[in-house]
Design goal:
The protein is mostly beta strands. Helices cover about 0% and strands about 45% of the residues.
Length: about 80
């Protein structure tokens, strides 16, 4: 498994959904290297959480709304 880290300190936002409750991705959700799979709301704006590899989510370590620190592992991807 490949860890995905928070790029900055802030609040974890897996989705920004104005119509429905936002939630973390479930295991098996496909992700692409270099494409945002979530965001961290920092004091100066939104930073993208970007996986380094293509694959599928196998575990999510940070829940929607959790406070995270830079470098904290927020998910694991299986290639």
């Amino acid at each position: 498994s490949v860890p995905v880290q928070a790029p900055v300190r802030g609040q974890m936002l897996w989705e920004v959904d104005v119509d429905d409750a936002s939630s973390a991705p479930v295991a098996g959700t496909p992700v692409e290297a270099g494409k945002a799979m979530g965001y961290v709301q920092a004091y100066y704006g939104m930073e993208e959480v970007v996986p380094a590899v293509d694959g599928r989510v196998v575990a999510v370590c940070a829940k929607q709304g959790d406070n995270v620190v830079k470098g904290e592992i927020v998910a694991f991807i299986e290639k």
